[in-house]
Specification:
Blueprint: H1 6-25, E1 35-39, H2 46-60, E2 65-68, E3 71-78, E4 81-88
Parallel strand pairs: 1-4
Antiparallel strand pairs: 2-3, 3-4
Length: 103
Amino acid sequence: MSYASQDERNRLIDGLRALAKFLHDHPDVPAPRWTDVLVFPLDGTDEEKRAEIDVIASRIGVEPREIVSGHYSTSLSFGPVQYRAVAICERPDESDEEGEVTQ
């Protein structure tokens, strides 16, 4: 998997705007209460995926965190719309029963 090219990125943005306009213009059409836009790092080792999440986190100004065992993530919310980058690692960090990382 790779990230969107500039053309694909532009089409995604246009599609999101078109969806917003459609939902605005058709109040009879059900809409979700929230939505996530998910981005996954390019293939690599667990360490490389986590490093990519760290880079994305710095770009959006939010700290990354473990969200569930083996999932390392950062997110930025725009009301009920969330941009989330997630690395699904094959080998989660070692944690004790309370979720604290052990060494």
